[in-house]
Structure formats: C-alpha cells, structure tokens
C-alpha cells in the first residue's frame, strides 16, 4: 500500500463498510504510528530520568528508593520496547495486506477489537482459545 488515503478528520471505522478497506488501513496505520511516537517519547524521557538520577545517594533509604525507581523505569522501558516491536509488526501487516485478519483462522479480527488493541493478531475467539490452552498447560 504505497499510496496513502486521505482521511476526514472525524473518521472512525465502522462495521458497515468493507473490512480493511483503504480508509480503515490508513486509520489504523495512523493510530499505530501515533502510539509508536508516544512510546518513543516516553522512552526518551525514561532514558533522561535514568541519566539524571544516576547520582550517588548518601542515605541508604534514598539509595534503595532510587534503585526501586530505576528498576521500575527499566521494566517500563522494556515493555515499551516490546510494544514498539509489535507495532512495527502490525505496520508491516498493513503493508502486506494481512492486518486485521486472525493469524489462526484468517477471519476478520473486528473493528472493536482492533480499536481496543490495534496490535491484535488473533480474533477474540482464537485469543480466548489460546489463553484457555495456556492456562491448562500452566496448571499442569
């Protein structure tokens, strides 16, 4: 999809239109790019915070608190990195035409699910089956 489709400013995809038409693809492409940009901005803030707080804390409680904060920042940054990777994969699926369709069943994932989780790769039914199987195997 090399050509970008112009979207009206108030455009929202609906179930009434053809699933994953050019407008819907562009809508989700823009949504993913915006989310990716926000995550990158937060990652830069985290990096700056980590650099600024790397000073030596005199008090042991302050040091422990700083370590906890640093650990939380690093976990948040790792989560953002993984999300960015999934966003990049979703953007690739938009380019190759497979975005919005379940990896298992090839059925449409659905507009509501994609609105809530634009990186979804499974339909709600396939996701529920997947989670049920995970739980069964985890309980063994």
Describe this structure as you would to a colleague:
With 140 residues, the chain is mainly α. The protein has two domains: 18-99, DksA, coiled-coil domain (Four Helix Bundle (Hemerythrin (Met), subunit A)), CATH 1.20.120.910; 100-140, no CATH class. Helices cover 64% and strands 0% of the residues. It contains four helices and no strands. It is flat and about 65 Å long. The mean pLDDT is 87.
Sequence-ordered SSE layout with sheet pairings:
Blueprint: H1 22-52, H2 60-96, H3 111-116, H4 124-139
Helix pairs in contact: 1-2
Explain briefly what this protein structure is:
With 140 residues, the protein is mostly helical. Helix content is 64%, strand content 0%.
> How is the main sheet built?
none
How do the helices and strands follow one another from N- to C-terminus? HHHH
Indicate the percent of residues in helices.
Answer: 55-70%
Give the N-to-C terminal Cα separation: 45 Å
Please report the total strand number as a whole number. 0
CATH class of the largest domain: Mainly Alpha
Question: What are the main properties of this structure?
Answer:
2 domains; mainly alpha; Four Helix Bundle (Hemerythrin (Met), subunit A); 140 residues
């Amino acid at each position: 999809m090399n050509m970008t489709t112009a979207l009206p400013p108030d455009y929202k995809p609906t179930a009434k239109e053809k699933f994953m038409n050019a407008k819907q693809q562009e809508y989700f492409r823009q949504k993913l790019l915006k989310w990716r940009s926000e995550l990158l901005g937060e990652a830069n803030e985290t990096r700056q915070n980590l650099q600024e707080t790397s000073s030596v804390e005199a008090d042991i409680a302050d040091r422990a608190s700083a370590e906890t904060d640093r650990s939380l920042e690093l976990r948040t940054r790792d989560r953002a990195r993984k999300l960015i990777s999934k966003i990049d994969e979703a953007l690739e699926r938009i380019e190759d035409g497979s975005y919005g369709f379940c990896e298992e069943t090839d059925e449409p994932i659905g507009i509501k699910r994609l609105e809530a989780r634009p990186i979804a790769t499974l339909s709600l039914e396939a996701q529920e089956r997947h989670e049920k199987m995970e739980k069964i195997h985890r309980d063994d």
